[in-house]
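[User] I have long wanted to understand how a fold can be written as tokens. Those tokens are not coordinates but codes from a learned vocabulary of shapes. Could you go through the record with me and say what the backbone is doing? Thank you; the sequence and its tokens follow:
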Amino acid sequence: MSSSPTPATLQDFIPIAEKFVEDHRGLKFTSPVKVTFLDDTAFKARLDSKPTAQDQADIEKAAKELRALGLVQGNVDLTKLTQSLLTAAVVGFYDYKTKELVVRGVKPTPYTREVLVHELTHAVQDQHFGLDRPDLSKSNDERSTAFTSVFEGDAVRIQDEYRNSLPVDERAQAQNEASSGQIPADIPRVLIELLTFPYVAGPSFDTTVVYLRGQQGLDDALRKPPTTTAQLLHPERYFSGDAGQTVAKPPADGAAFDDGILGEQGLDLLLERAVEAGVLSSNDSRTASAAWAGDHYVAWDRGSVSCLRVSFAGPDQSAATTLATALRRYAATRSGVNVSGLTLTSCA
């Protein structure tokens, strides 16, 4: 399939992009979408907003928890680093509160057109299913991540279909544009992994849903999304309604400042470090992560040190043994970490 001739301007491309999204996503726009195209400087200024007091508090808690687990080192300014990463990586966004779509770019290059297709997919999703779900963002579990992964995966899927519709030379140009951005060297890898997770896990989950249940199945997943990253990584768990077990909050050795769910995604981030240290194979890490059947963590401060204790559950004794072994091998890579059964305590 070939795309329409290159439009003279991005404004000219808007109706072309809207029709592409409608045809490929199977949803009609119910109202016009406000689209703003900004040059690089203006786009960065638009992104550079001061976090709210609540956002800042959440970031500070996350920094202490990541430090406790050894996923970031030292007294990093997570707010500044997150803003720096977003400024480097984000090329467009759809604001579901204002219903405005903003794209970084003022020329109709292949990649900028591709980004517009991606963001318009979010706009049509929002018009039919509603993307503003504050109850998810306020929860301290994985529901927000899971929902974000479904709608981002959907937009990536339509974006990829648009790129594949382009002539070969424009596809190559789009690829070069997409890979031209430079991530600052001081960004902790875990921040990149957390930011990119929905764009990696989401498309795979959505593709499986569409293959097995069609577009209607994906619509259903947007209405009633997965609740855990385990369901995203293993769609059969979503189809069977397996959201994992409820695990009791472990005790804290001090005044707790947070508790929540680490999830299979978080477990995988930990075990990756054991693989890098050479104490766990990639295959064993994947097997252990897939054994996740629920968890609950609690975090507290011990003087200038932050601690996190997480209790995991496995679906059966064999899986629990596999998971416990992997946790012990991870613990051996760092000081300040101990494991008792399926409970890990880490301070840093």
